[in-house]
Every structure is written in C-alpha cells, then in structure tokens.
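Re: Re: token formats

Sure, here are both.
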Amino acid sequence: MTEAALSLPRPKAAMNPWVVAAAVVVPTFMEVLDTTIAVVALRYIVGGLSATVIDGEWVLTSYLAANAIILPITGWLSNRFGRRNYFLASIAVFTLASGLCGMATSLSQLILFRVIQGLAGGGLQPSSQGVLLDAFPRERQGVAMTLFGLAALIAPVVGPTLGGWITDNYEWRWVFYINVPVGLLAFAACYAVVHDPDYLTTQRAEQRGRASRFDSIGLSLLVITMVSWEVMLSKGEEWNWLGDVFGRIQTLLTLFIVGLGGLIVWEMHHKSPVVNFRPLGERNFSACCIIIFGAYAVLYGASTSLPGLLQSLFGYNAELSGLVMSPAGFFAVLTLPVVGRVLGRQTDARWMILTGLLVMAAGNYWMSQLNLDISPGQVVWPRVVLIVGLAICFAPANVAAYLYTPMELRGAAVGLLSLLRNEGGSVGTSLSQALQDHREQFHTLRLGEYLDPFNPAVHSFTEQSKAFFLQQTGDPALSQQLAWQALENLRQQQASSLAYFDCFWIFAVIMIALVPVVLLMKRSVAEKGARVGVE
C-alpha cells in the first residue's frame, strides 16, 4: 500500500449525510427485497402463466445470475460512467423492468424482464453503500453501515411476509408493480442529493486519459463463471448434484472451476480489469467477506427452512408463516441503532462481530431443539435471536471490511462484498434444500428400522388404529391398510421434522466455525482522524 493511498484526503459530502442516507437506502431496500419477495409468489406466478413449477424456478435463477454478473464489475462501471450516473441509470432501468415483469404475458417474457431487472439491480447495493461511506466521516462509519443494514438486512426478512400478503390478498403481478412508485420516488430523491466526490471525479478523469482496451475476455469469463454457478445452485438438488446421469451438474461445475481460475489469473495481470480482486489481499476485507458470506448463507438457509417447516408440518399458509417470522425484523430495527451507537464510541468491531456470530449460533441451536408440539409463539423467539445476532455483526463487519481498504479500491471492494453477500444467500438456500432432502431420507430409514409387527408398540398402535378405522368404514381389510398408512404418515412427519431441525443445528455449527476468522482480523476501530492502513 503506497503512502499516497494512506494519506489520501477524504472528500467532503456535498449534502447533509442524513438526507443522502434517506435517499439511497430506498433503492437498496427495493432491490434486496426482490431477491426474496418473489419466492413465495412463485406458485401463483406459474399458475397465472400456465407453466410448471420447475420451469418457473428460472424466474428466480435468471434474476440471481444476472445480479451476480453485475455485482463484481460495479466498481469498473462506476469509474467508467461516474457513480452518480450509473446509480441513477440502475434505478431507472430496474423500475422499468419491474413494471414489465408485472405486465408479462408468458413465462419467457417474465424471465427476460427478470434478467434485465437483475442486471440493473446489481448496481444498486454497491453504489448506495459507496455513497454512504463517502457521505459520513470515518468516525461515523458505524452509523453509515447501520443505515445500510436497515435495507440489506431487513429486506430479506420482510420479503417473504410481504410477498405472502400480496399474493394472498391481491395478485402476483403486484409483487413487481410495487417497485414502480417506489423506484420513481427513489430516482427523484437520488437525482437531487447524490453527487460524485472529488476523488471519484479525479479517478474518472485519469482513466479517460489512459488508453485501455475493454476487458472483454474478463467479462466473458465472469459471465461463464457466475451463470454456471447460479444454475448449479438452483438446479443441483433437482438434478441430483454429482449423481446427475445427464452430466449437467458435472459440466456446470467444470465450467465454474475453469472459469473462476481463468478469471482470477487473467484479471490479476490485466492493466484495466473489469473485476478487480486486489482488495482481497487486505486481511480484514478477506475475513469480512468470509463472515458476511457465511452469515447470509445461514440467514437465507434458515429463512427457507422455517417457512417450509411451518407450511408442510403445521399447516400454515404463506401469510401466517410470514407473520410468525416478521417480529424478528422489528427487533432487528431496534437493534441496529444501538449497534451504530456502540460503534460510534470507537468500539473494536471485531468483538461485536464475534458476539453477533455467537448469538446467531444460539438462535439456530434453539430452533434445532424444537418439536412438533410447539405453538407459533415458541417459533418467534428463536427467530428473533437469530436475526438480532445478524444485526449485531452486520454493521461492524462492513466497517471493519473497508477500514484498511485504500480509497481507489473501494469501488471494487464494495462490489466484491455485495457479490459475496448475495452468493451467500444463494448457497444458503440451496444448502437448506439439499440438507432437508438428504436428512429426511436418513431419518425415514432410521425410524423404519423397528417398525415391524413384532414390535409391541407398533402392534398396539396398529391394533388401536385398525379398531378406529373399522368403526368408520366397516371394512376389516381397508381398516388394516389405513392403520399401516397412518403409521407411515406419522413416520414421514417425524422424519421431515427431524430433517428441518438438523438444518438449524448445522447452521449453528457454521456460525461457530466462523469465530476463528474473527481472531485473524486486525484491530478495527473507526477513530476520528485515523489514517487508513494503520493497525
């Protein structure tokens, strides 16, 4: 790191930072919300467009793949076109694409518009985070990241609840239409208050003065890598992962490994890389990337498993299961300002990250100890603990990530961390589905080991059930079949519940496994007047 980078003067915000923050968190919330709000509406969407659920999953996959392609190159795009121009263009295209998604008359149209929406939405998170980091002075970076956390953390929590309520009470198209008025408002507000700081203007002028060819090879490798990765995660369980007899998963995995390896080698030697991996050379940033990736994998994994448990075994509909999960978002909103205040007192962010990870582990472990006799209220509190834990570690992790990152690499760093945050969510969703399926098979076999007529408990259950069904049907043969079917249904119910609880237990283990990563970080206190790069 050069002395010039260490002593680079901090730009002054052109507007009151709170006004800027109020404007830029809105498009971020809107974009993050779209990663989860369409999940609960998927069955309504495919029904309305006369498609199958399997084909309809491309509505989700196409958005995530397009989003993943853009996120790592947002730093390059901001430098090329100006962050303000790129941010405003992203808001405008995202809003337009959302309206087109709502008007789609076929599944192919909807997938196309979702790709456009994902490409535009990829620029919203990194741009808004970069604006917040520049708007607030260094000693108030905790406040800036707390405000960003309100959007990046609360949106995926309330997404399933809002999506369930919209689809149950209105029409699935309003899941997309709701973005239009919000997008127009966000565009007008950001147009008025967002401006590029001096250092970005200087960087853009310098880049214009240098003759450099567009990194088309790097972009091609990025597209191959991220598309193969997202499709593999989305379709892996359906295609039986590496057991896929058609070789689709094997092909995607090969393309991902080769594409990623080629991308890293190519970009590290390119003079003007479209994806800049150099921020990963800073220890704090790399550690925070791992932590955020793991934390969001657990968030999305738990947010996928819990509604599945409630809807399949407890008989909740989408709206009711969302209401059970929504109090956690309220407590996260209460927690984030406290976290920002503590960070503002020059607290070492490492210990807050450590505390948050342990609280998340406790929340998941609590959920793993539940059973099928619980009430809705007994589900709420473990979920609250999980989300509060994430709220505790989110802002400190973002402060520590950028504390030692040079200003000229900040754009690339924000894009990389946003990518890993989103990909953590994709991995968590895929992991929860795979774990639930495989652990259900395991428990079904284990529970069936002693279910035979010679087991006294089985004999007693089947005899009582047979007597009950005989009174209902008057048919001895049918009563015998119904008694065995009741026992099988009970076995499947218990196996499924144990599989869901195993998922939460594994998520708790993942959180504990992230603790050593925190211990590898440098001291992370955002002090007033501190120079970047000083430990």
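Second one below.
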Amino acid sequence: MLESIVINNFAIIDRTHIEFESGMTALTGETGAGKSILLDAIQLVLGDRAGSDSVKDGSDKADISVSFDTSQLQNAQQWLQQNELDDAGECLLRRVIQANGRSKAFINGSPVTLTQLKSLGEMLVDLHGQHEHQSLQKPGIQRQLLDASLPDSSLLLETQNRYIEWSSLIKRQQQVQDESIQKEQRIDLLKLYTQEFEELSLQQGEISALQDEYSRLSHAGQIIETSTSVLSILFENDESTVQQLLARCVEELNILNRLDSSLNNTTELVKSALIQIQEASSELRFYQDNIDIDPNRLDWLNNRLSQAQSLARKHQIPVEELVDYATTMNKELDLILLDEADVEKLQQQIDQAAIEYLISATALSELRKTTAESLSRQISEVMQTLGMQGGQFEIQLESNPQTGSFSRHGIDQIQFMVSANPGQAVKALNKVASGGELSRISLAIQVILSESSMIPTLIFDEVDSGIGGGIAEIVGRKLRQIASNRQVFCVTHLPQVASQAHQHLQVNKTKTDSDTSTDVIALDKQQRLEEIARMLGGMTITEQTRAHAQEMINNV
C-alpha cells in the first residue's frame, strides 16, 4: 500500500508530508484548490513525463518521494530483487525534476530509468478517472482481470507451458530454415571434398610408407653403389676385408689366450664382432638383391604423393593429416545430412505441439467465455446502481485458432465493451466519450473484480462527476466496499462520497500578493465535520448543516 508522500517545490506546493492509512481516503477541497496536484505528483513518481512547469516558480527543482509497503506483494518484491533494487523490504520511489525539465528517478536510492519506474509503478498503483493512467483500457489488463476471475487457473499455466514448447520448436525450425542455404552449400562442398578423398583412398600411415618407398626407389642407383662398396669392405673383396681382418685377429687372440687366460673376454668380444659383421653382410646382400628398380612403380609413387600433397595444400594442412581430416569431414557431412533428415521429424513435432496447445487454449477459451458472461452480468448490475440506468457491460472474446494467433496467453482477443445509455450499442471501453462515465464504469468493474486484482492501491479521480443525491451515496459505498481489502483514494466534490472515507485529506490554496501555494492537510474528526458541512452548505455553514454532516458520517 501507499504509506507516505513527501513533496517539495512541486507546481504550487512548497512542501508537504502526508502519511496515508489503509482503507478509503477522500481528497476534497474547493474548486480550483488543486485537488489533482497530489495525484499528479504520484503519477510523476510512477513514471509520467515531466516538464519545467512541474517545478514551483522560483525553485531550481522539484523533489517527490513516495513510500510503499510491498511486504504482501510478491510480484513487486521479485521485480525489485531481479533488478537488484531491493533494500530490506523497503520500497521508496523518488523523482527529482530540474527547472530546465530534466529529471532523475530513483528506487531505494539507486538511479533508474523511467521505464523501470513505470514497470514497478504498474504493480503498485492503478489510477482511474479523467487521466492518462486508465489501465482498464489496455487489452493486456483486461485479459489479466478476466483471468484473475477464472475459477481454475491451471488451464492458464498449462496453455502457457504448451505454448513455450510449441514456440521453442518453431524457433528451432526457423533456425534450420535460416541456415538451409548455407547448409546446402556446405553439403555440396563436403560431398566434393569427400569424393576427392575417396578417389585417393589413403589409408592411415600410408603417406609415411609411400615417402619411404619413393625415397628408396628414387635413390636406387646410389643405394646399390654404396651397399656394394660397403659389402666389399666388410666381406666381398679378394684383398683385405673387415671380415678377413677380424678372422685373423681371432686366430692371434686364440694363441695369446692359451698363454694368458685373462684375454679370454677380449677374444670373445672380437669373435662376436666377427659374427655381427657376417650377419650384417648377409642382410646387406639380401637388401641389395631385393632392390626393385621399377620405373613404372616410381612413376606411380610420384603421382600418388603429388595427388596427396596437392590435396593437402588445398585444405592447408600437413600431408600427414589428410586421413584424419577426411574422417572429420565425413563425420560433419553425416551430421548435416542427419539434421536434414530430422527436418521432417521436427515438423511432425511442431504439428503435435500445436494440437496439444490448441486443446489447452480451446479449453481455456471456453472457461473464459463462461466467466466473461457471469462478470458481464454482475458488472452491468453495478452500473445500474451508479446512475447509468440501462447501461450494459460486455466482455467480448474473439478466438482465432490459427497458428499466427498463438500466444502464451491463449488464442483469445479480449475486449471490454460498454453501453452507458439505454438503446445504445456496446462499444469498446476506450471509445467511451465521457470521463465521468468511464470513471463510474471503472468503479463498477473494480467493485466486482477488486478481490482478484493484484494491484493494492486504486485512485479514482472525479468518479462522482455528473451525479448526486442517492447515486452519490451508492458510489461512496462502493468505494468503501472496495477499500475493505484494497487501499482506495478518491478525489471528490460530493459529501456523500467523502463521508464514507476512513481518512480525509483537504486541499487548500493560499494566495498572497506575491505567491500562490497549496497545502494538503489530514483532517481530524472536527475538521472533517467542518469540511463535510462546507461541501453540503457552501460558504455559509449553519448548525443544521453541521448536524446533517454529522448524520452522514454517523450513517457510514
């Protein structure tokens, strides 16, 4: 609820500090006293645009602070936490307007944008009357009010969840469609690349083997020449060879070994060397005998390695990585082709999700229609009691099951329709010409919907415009009825309405030769009696008028 307001140098207010109470608060004052200034200040704190005329003449800035109790408002508390503006349960909104028209906004001392201020304000205060803040004209608010009156809210959550599921599939489909052109191009490119790799048909480790074989065959002459020379030195030579020299050394060492057994180990080492030379010569001879000097094979190796190197340059990778790269491209192609195959499956999932959504949304629509008929009758009945004889209220629903009309709130377009006078066709609430009629229609709606509304503070400006007598008393009672579970503010000029209030604020304008100022005063019992009497009898207040005023207060 709205707890207090502090206003400095706003319009024609120098300074005022008002503590508000729960229940119904009446704001009264003589014509021209500036009863709406307090509402204007509240609207600025709730995010309305400000101009330089908001600042009192002679002041450099206007400063307005409003305190709210949000302890019972879960949505407001969540909003404050999500925006990192919560302050131990406090909710202080502040607006500072400079004389040049610029302004700053704060929530719990932290700077915020007007959008943030307005977002929070819409959870705290709802203004009705001849002002811009007439939220009942907004389709979204109309839908919320109807849905808040539904006997079962489970269909709302079910419809929302099924819409989320359907819309997520639609987004996935859109992504697939957006990527389709690039994907087709990628598929064509991958198919070309993989075909090239398939034609080359490289095996893991083949490049290294090919390079070794190519090196061997391309240097076959040098290999044969050198190996022959080595064999000649080691074994195959009529003159002195390593084998012959080692064999002679073994013979000599055998003789020495008989003379000195300590040379036995040395003799064995030389014998081992002789054996290894013989084995090496044998392997070298075998290698030499098996060298295949085949020009055709060499040409084939050269061509295959050239193809591999050309493919590696094309993909800008080392030739040794070609096989792994081919495997990667094949996997990518398989995944993309799998995605393509899933497109049809995705469409099937979308179709099924749409069916399930429509089942929930249609059931929600039927429940809304039944609830709308009941609310329309009830609100029309209240309108009759508010001086709008013959007036009719109707909640119209237009359902569109086409996918283009799907929303998280269902398939219904909801509109409040009204006829303020008998014989007139109902028309949209925002087309009602009379501000007073619109205020009373809003009052009738709030009387019926007040218990289900989420906004804790309602402000009615001139809801009694154009009425009087018994109807005015009924309006006052209706406002007091709403105030049983909500905080209600009412700007009024009728004593029948003001007498119903729990708290009474009087707006007074004071003029001097050099200045005009307005004060807002919370009236005590005697002051309130005098104000009700003034509203009844004008400037001249008699004892009879006071008695009448007291009777009105006592009859609440």
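The longest strand covers residues 2-10. Residues 176-338 form one domain.
- S.
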